[in-house]
Specification:
Elements lengths: L4 E7 L6 H9 L8 E7 L6 H11 L3 E5 L6 H9 L6 E4 L5 E2 L3 H12 L3 E9 L19 E3 L17 E4 L15 H11 L3 E12 L11 H15 L4 H20 L4 H14 L5 H10 L8 H5 L6 H10 L9 E7 L9 E5 L5 E7 L8 E5 L6 E5 L3 E5 L10 E3 L6 E4 L5 E10 L2 H10 L10 H6 L4
Parallel strand pairs: 1-2, 1-4, 2-3, 6-9
Antiparallel strand pairs: 4-8, 5-9, 6-8, 7-9, 10-11, 10-13, 12-18, 13-17, 14-16, 14-18, 15-17
């Protein structure tokens, strides 16, 4: 059977949205008879295999691979690539879907322009009317564009998803997916920098499903270590444009370490692993990144340059625990729970200059059903705070909500507050930055890097105090 395009789909426990995904493929305007669908069932324990079997029995060009053990999406894709019989290849995740003319339109543009890689736009799909703003990893184009190298459009290097692209067979040898949480990066970037000609399509044909129940609290040290592995792999490519992506990933790891309240041993492990995963960061790469993204918020230029100057323990002390500047943002935020929990989609932020006493007003008029409210007085600094005009139900403070001040020794302080607010909410709150001596005392009690400050070796290492 001669097919024009092969579609690879790894599946693990995808029963909830699998039919919608498969239906979007079989209803393609190009005709399902022109598409080879290769599905890798990664040892699912739900009804996924039953659904896959139903479709494969109906459509002869469906090919099913079943892993005896769970291998992960990366290795599953690698197995499927070996079975491809079409001249072109694309990927899709089992909880996403595509527009009806996605493949026909894309293949027509590929053949008309003689390209070996096509990149199309995508949107985040939540099942609601919400459309997520474009971010650094979604460099969507407003016009169709033909380029001969990613160097002509360096921001394209941030498009590391495998599924919004169609690859010619000449690029298959570069599609070697990695293990871990970020298995796409090396494969996709290798294809991008080796493509002979690239077509950027302005049409949005892929819909990436976002779980509205997810929150920013799900980043763990495992994510950071896995991204460090990706940095090491990309660093080996020795490519200036790829270095831009690594600058972003290095900043991501630093942001997570600064922002999340992980165990100190985990933070030290992540910093040391990051140090060992990269060559010395080049100042020209950092300046190039800043030129491309002048408004990028979590950009730690000096921190990146100094990674090789300190051991992990000292680096953390200098750049996280004793840095008096906010590492994230000088802003306060309200999260509104409309029955689905707190998430970034229901966040309202106000930039402000923190004082001893602060009075901020938030516009809640777009929310029709307010179940709970979470208030974050500041991000990225250790603080003492108290709310003066509203009842506090809970807080992630290190002491009781009944104390006069709540003490936050984490970089994401927040309150759960009671309020009958309708369209606006005003919060009167006091705030103090915790002093270096208080920080040292706190961490001495936890017996971590700030302990033994009287030790001469630590006095020498922490001379920046």
């Amino acid at each position: 059977m001669n097919t024009q395009l092969s579609v690879i789909m790894p599946v693990y426990n995808g029963e909830k949205y699998l039919r919608q995904c498969l239906d979007s493929i079989v209803s393609q305007s190009i005709g399902i008879e022109n598409i080879e669908v290769i599905i890798v069932n990664d040892n699912s324990n739900d009804a996924s295999l039953d659904i896959i079997s139903e479709y494969s029995s109906k459509y002869p060009n469906f090919k099913v691979i079943s892993n005896e053990n769970q291998l992960g999406a990366g290795k599953s894709r690698n197995k499927a690539i070996l079975e491809v019989n079409s001249p072109y290849l694309t990927f899709i995740d089992c909880d996403d879907f595509i527009s009806q003319n996605a493949y026909e339109d894309s293949l027509l543009k590929i053949k008309e322009n003689d390209v070996d890689l096509l990149v199309y736009n995508w949107e985040t799909f939540t099942g609601t009317d919400y459309v997520e703003p474009i971010n650094i990893h979604q460099p969507n184009t407003s016009d169709n564009m033909l380029i001969s190298s990613v160097d002509e459009n360096p921001k394209l290097i941030f498009s590391t998803a495998s599924w919004n692209k169609i690859y010619h067979k000449s690029l298959f040898k570069y599609l070697k997916f990695s293990d871990g949480l970020y298995d796409d990066n090396l494969a996709v970037v290798s294809a991008l920098i080796n493509a002979r000609k690239i077509y950027l399509s302005k049409d949005c044909v892929y819909y990436y499903r976002k779980n509205l129940d997810s929150t920013t609290e799900n980043i763990t040290p495992k994510h950071a270590l896995s991204l460090c592995d990706s940095i090491r792999q990309l660093d080996s490519l020795n490519n200036t444009t790829v270095n831009l992506l690594n600058v972003k990933f290095i900043n991501d790891v630093l942001f997570w370490v600064y922002f999340y309240d992980w165990a100190i041993d985990d933070e030290i492990s992540v910093i040391n692993y990051l140090k060992n995963s990269i060559a010395k960061v080049n100042s020209s790469d950092l300046d190039y990144f800043r030129d491309l993204f002048p408004d990028y918020e979590a950009f730690y230029r000096q921190d990146c340059l100094d990674l090789d100057k300190y051991d992990g323990e000292t680096f953390l002390a200098k750049y996280k625990y004793f840095n008096r500047l906010s590492k994230v943002k000088s802003q306060a935020s309200i999260y509104v729970d409309e029955g689905n929990g707190f998430n970034e989609d229901s966040k309202i932020s106000v930039q402000y200059v923190p004082h001893d006493n602060n009075n901020l007003t938030f516009d809640l008029s777009r929310f029709s059903n307010i179940v709970n409210l979470r208030f974050d007085p500041l991000e990225g600094s250790f603080i003492k705070s108290k709310i003066n005009n509203l009842r506090v139900l809970d807080a992630n403070s290190d002491n009781s909500i009944d104390d006069e001040y709540q003490i936050f020794m984490n970089l994401d302080p927040n309150y759960i507050i009671a309020s009958d607010a309708d369209s606006t909410l005003t919060i009167d709150f006091d705030l103090e930055f915790i002093s270096n001596n208080e920080i040292a005392g706190f961490f001495a009690e936890k017996n971590n890097i700030i302990n033994e400050l009287n030790n001469k070796s630590k006095q020498k290492r922490f001379k920046f105090l």
